[in-house]
Design brief:
This protein is α+β, with helices and mostly antiparallel strands. The protein has two domains: 12-134, no CATH class; 182-366, 2-Layer Sandwich (D-amino Acid Aminotransferase, Chain A, domain 1). The protein is 16% helix and 26% strand. It is built from seven helices and 19 strands. It has helices at residues 58-64, 114-117, 129-134, 231-237, 260-269, 295-309, 324-333; strands at residues 12-16, 30-32, 40-42, 48-52, 66-73, 77-84, 96-101, 182-183, 185-187, 196-200, 205-212, 215-220, 243-250, 276-285, 288-289, 314-316, 338-343, 351-352, 363-366. A hairpin with a 2-residue loop joins strand 11 (205-212) and strand 12. It is elongated.
Length: 367
């Protein structure tokens, strides 16, 4: 339903008939990756039970295109009728219906929009859409099935790659779009010894900048397109050649430190001119997939790329190859989230090496 339901019997709302979905989709709340069917954030707005209106046969009503029902949801209640519309052209395969509220104790004549305006949070988790998109907050409580779900659930309609195939063959040149991001595992102290790159962990939103033919998209860790939320960063990234960058969008305070509260305020007020994308990895450059190359080579190419761009809204994340513990202690003194440690000889592998909670400011992370 493009506009959602109305409790005003005088209003008719378009309801598009879709194909059958699996039962567990009825409990899904999270993100469908960009480019897939139904891509975007999914919020569970209402749930409950329905029965045919007393004295009616639902099978006959469905066949005739006049289906009278009674809803017992947490937000929608009372009688409704679904009236099938005539096809807009011969041979149309999709059925469109009109949902109309019956006049009963649950109707609100002249104020049908209130049910939408007054209920903007999930009925299953209490979250708003932004929290669902970011994978934050409480997970949804199950209803259709007994399965519990994660707060950052993803529903993919595409076939998954074969196991062990997260790193592409060397030299692959397929143009990349969204790539499932590489995630870190939690450790109590950073790794010692040579061969590691240690970076400051920024407190912001993880974004991929995907640039193709002079157009840039900024995608969240779940594949949502947030380009419109960071227009200045997207405009700066569009000056790059075809690339895929991995980074973190942040707001900086007067001392140049990341300020997550300021980032949220900037997005809420649409005052985003001063936001910065700190890029720490380069996944693709001019059509070449770089994920199989070692991190040291990817970062060297990234540094040159951003130096040539010379735009303050896209900045290169420097790293340290020694003194990881000292860097972590400095990060803690500055109230930063921590540090991230990565092998310099490692390829880019999507996903998380081992499960673990979100790191805190006093912890270090490593791939």
């Amino acid at each position: 339903m493009t506009r959602g339901p109305s409790l005003d019997p005088a209003e008719r709302r378009l309801a598009v008939e879709v194909e059958d979905h699996p039962l567990d989709y009825g409990d899904f709340e999270g993100v469908i990756p960009a480019g897939e069917y139904g891509g975007g954030s999914v919020l569970l707005w209402d749930r409950g039970y329905w029965t045919p209106e007393p004295g009616t046969d639902p099978h006959e009503g469905l066949t005739k295109g006049d289906l009278k029902i009674v809803l017992e949801g947490e937000r929608l209640r009372g009688g409704f009728v679904l009236v099938r519309m005539k096809p807009d052209k011969p041979g149309a395969k999709r059925n469109n219906w009109l949902l109309i509220k019956h006049r009963d104790d649950w109707a609100r004549p002249g104020d049908g929009e209130a049910v939408i305006a007054d209920n903007t949070a999930s009925v299953a988790s209490g979250r708003k859409m932004a929290a669902i998109a970011a994978g934050e907050g409480a997970p949804p409580k199950p209803f259709m099935t007994a399965r519990t779900a994660a707060a950052d659930a993803v529903w993919s309609t595409k076939a998954r790659p074969a196991a062990g195939r997260k790193t592409p063959p060397k030299g692959a040149r397929a143009s990349l779009g969204f790539v499932e991001p590489q995630l870190c595992k939690l450790v109590d102290r950073p790794p010692a010894g040579p061969g590691w790159a240690h970076e400051v962990k920024f407190d912001g939103y993880r974004l991929q900048a995907v640039v193709r033919d002079g157009a840039a998209r900024l995608l969240t860790r779940k594949g949502l397109d947030w380009s419109a939320r960071f227009p200045e960063i997207a405009k700066a990234a569009a000056r790059l050649p075809d690339v895929v960058l991995d980074g973190e969008a942040v707001a900086l305070d007067a001392d140049g430190s990341p300020d997550f509260a300021a980032l949220q305020a900037a997005l809420s007020e649409e005052k985003t001119a001063d936001l910065v994308l700190f890029a720490f990895d380069l996944l693709s450059l001019k059509g070449e997939d770089l994920r199989a190359k070692p991190l040291s080579e990817r970062k060297a190419a990234l540094k040159i790329l951003l130096q040539n761009l010379d735009d303050p809204r896209l900045r290169y994340v420097e790293h340290f190859e020694t003194s990881a513990q000292a860097l972590l202690e400095s990060a803690c003194r500055l109230s930063l989230e921590g540090i991230v440690s990565k092998r310099l000889d490692a390829p880019y592998r999507s996903g998380r090496a081992t499960p673990g909670p979100r790191p805190s400011a006093a912890r270090a992370m490593r791939w």
